[in-house]
Amino acid sequence: MNREQLGRLLQHHGAMMVLGMLVVVGTLGFDSFATPDNAASIVVSSSFLAVVAIGTTFVIISGGIDLSVGSLFVLGGVLAAFGSQYGFAVALLLPLAVCGLVGLVQGLIIARTGLAPFIVTLAGLLGVRGMMLTISNEGATTYLVKNPAFAALGQGEILGLTYPVYLTIALALAAMVLLQRTGFGQNVYAIGGNEQAAALMGVPVARTKIYVYLMSGLLAGLAGALNAARLSSGVTILGIGMELDAIAAVVIGGTLLTGGAGGVTGTVAGVLLLGVIQSLINQVGNLTSSIQQVVSGAFLALVVVAQRLLSKAQR
């Protein structure tokens, strides 16, 4: 195996390798780590971030960034809880419609005006957060999920895992096929690799970008709705800052921040890696949750540096 092949292996499967090593360390170091209950807890708690991160994967591969997904996640939860009083369909479709519309508008602005995604989605983050605070009376009102069928969507279980876990698996598989086996997925890679060259080859750059941000908004809203169903309420403080966790998971999973390379498999591994780190910190017992942010930040910095070095080595 030459240096280039080794670099590609580490980039594509490095997160999975580290995840495996941490699982081994946790199993050997803590009796309560490798238990079915703890494994289920990690998977269930990671499923909501995974749904958001799948959309973020498409955005980053296309060479963009979406800072609004954390606020959309919270807004989706609040709208789902609010809409549950009108039935299951409203509770599910209302957050999808509103959050999808936000993603669509952001995609249109980015694609048609050429504005930097960072600026557009930062404005979206602030605007969506303001919308959420308006609906919840500055966070003073917490809407409860009043539809039992919708609550069951987030709380029902099969073989010890909640329904959102299976939905996340289905979404991840669909996203893998979409990214790797369709013309749309190839267009996303092409735009992220070299937008000007992609345009010259006839790739519908603007339309692809619009779809990517629409997808990101829809998935963030869906994740928020599922989380509201799980908690039976639209909590206004959960999800703030989730955009950073989603970006971290995507990059740790091997997707280049510059775009043009990456995949959903690595993103799922990155999400689980963050979940395992949090679980290991909890196993220690005398460490606070803020340590997880320190460890995740340090790990992210190492991954970005490693990506840079591997990129140079492959040249």
Automatic annotation (TrEMBL):
The chain crosses the membrane at residues 12-33, 39-60, 67-86, 92-111, 118-136, 156-179, 210-229, 264-285, 291-310. The lineage of its organism: Bacteria, Bacillati, Actinomycetota, Actinomycetes, Streptosporangiales. Keywords: Cell membrane, Membrane, Transmembrane, Transmembrane helix. This is ABC transporter permease. It comes from the Bacteria. It is a multi-pass membrane protein. It is found in: Cell membrane.
